[in-house]
Amino acid sequence: MHLSKRILVTGGAGFLGSHLCARLLKEGHDVICVDNFFTGTKNNVISLLNNPHFEVMRHDVTFPLYVEVDEIYNLACPASPIHYQHDPVQTAKTSVHGAINMLGLAKRLKAKIFQASTSEVYGDPQIHPQTESYWGHVNPIGFRSCYDEGKRCAETLFFDYRRQHKLRIKVARIFNTYGPNMHPNDGRVVSNFIVQALRNEPITLYGDGSQSRSFCYVDDLIDVFVRLMDTADDFTGPVNMGNPNEFTIKELAEKVIDLTGSRSKLINKPLPKDDPSKRKPDITLAKEKLGWEPKIELEEGLKNTIAYFETLMKESKK
Ligand code: NAD
Ligand code: UDP
Ligand code: UDP
Fold this sequence. Notes:
Blueprint: E1 6-10, H1 15-26, E2 30-35, E3 54-58, E4 71-74, H2 81-84, H3 88-109, E5 112-118, H4 145-165, E6 169-174, E7 177-178, H5 189-198, E8 203-206, E9 212-214, E10 216-217, H6 218-229, E11 239-241, E12 246-248, H7 249-260, E13 266-269, H8 284-290, H9 298-317
Parallel strand pairs: 1-2, 1-4, 2-3, 4-5, 5-6, 6-11, 7-10, 8-13
Antiparallel strand pairs: 9-12
Bound molecules: nicotinamide-adenine-dinucleotide and uridine-5'-diphosphate (UDP) (2 copies).
């Protein structure tokens, strides 16, 4: 029998959170979306609002939260470098105080709790591809540290709450993911390039574009979130989640121009400090433990994402 659960999604109005809320509602659960709307928007969840099993709460996770749920997905945190570096102290607070509050909530409720961690815990990696056993190469005092070290500390807290208080935890290390519901001004590479291409504006390559990333389409990622949450209590992760197909940023730009038929030209901008030169997940663990691997290739995922931004831009002109 399929049991309906009460599920809290923090950061539920963001890019990933909004897809997760939709998926959980579709499975028949009651969903509480908590968000302070820093980078997320009401538009991302507007289509869910008429569902009586869905509830939105404006709340900042750096403050305590008292609700009654069975499971918690902790996604609250700006994910784009320009946004998380805008107010770095708040970013670190969101990761660390946010984790403490959500872990305290999980402890009181004996609820299962999922942490949206990141490939950034590996920093500018010196092994390639990255496996979960790699401890990373992270600058503790740079511009990205508020996010990287915040997320690393959150992982520490999750494992200490498990050891000390026997919490049921699930830690996901998410690699670059893209798709509909990314904000047009999000600042991450896929949304930037698509929006620039659709406007026939120059495509901004930071550095020479030879740095690489591996891009996962959002539907594949949400599928593995739910699989991880449903594993037996002795499986905690951390587990890498992403698409191992690696592309240079220049290749991505060329693909976006090709798929949009844009007249945009590539221009070079300075490479941000501490920008990792390469990134690619080793997903052996996810394959073995979760029976998962991504199905949607870059071209198909980009087409869906381009269609989303085309509609969004048409609507904003109305
Ligand atoms: P996003 O910026 O679209 O969503 C984050 C959401 O959290 C937003 O709705 C924002 O308003 C909310 N938020 C931020 N601070 C908050 C606070 N203090 N209290 C309550 N809500 C707050 O980003 P996303 O891509 O959806 O990322 C979601 C999570 O996944 C983040 O934790 C991020 O670190 C992680 N992640 C994402 C990726 C990716 O490629 N998308 C990769 C690695 C990790
Ligand atoms: N907390 C919360 N909701 C709850 C229970 C706890 O937000 O339902 C917060 C509370 O602010 C607390 C934090 O989680 O400070 C950590 O809780 P824990 O029980 O681990 O520690 P303590 O209460 O002793 O500080
Ligand atoms: N990038 C770029 N142009 C842009 C935005 C990003 O060349 O307009 C590059 C960025 O320098 C990085 C890669 O694309 O090397 C991925 O950046 P993003 O901010 O999406 O995520 P990151 O993986 O760096 O957190």
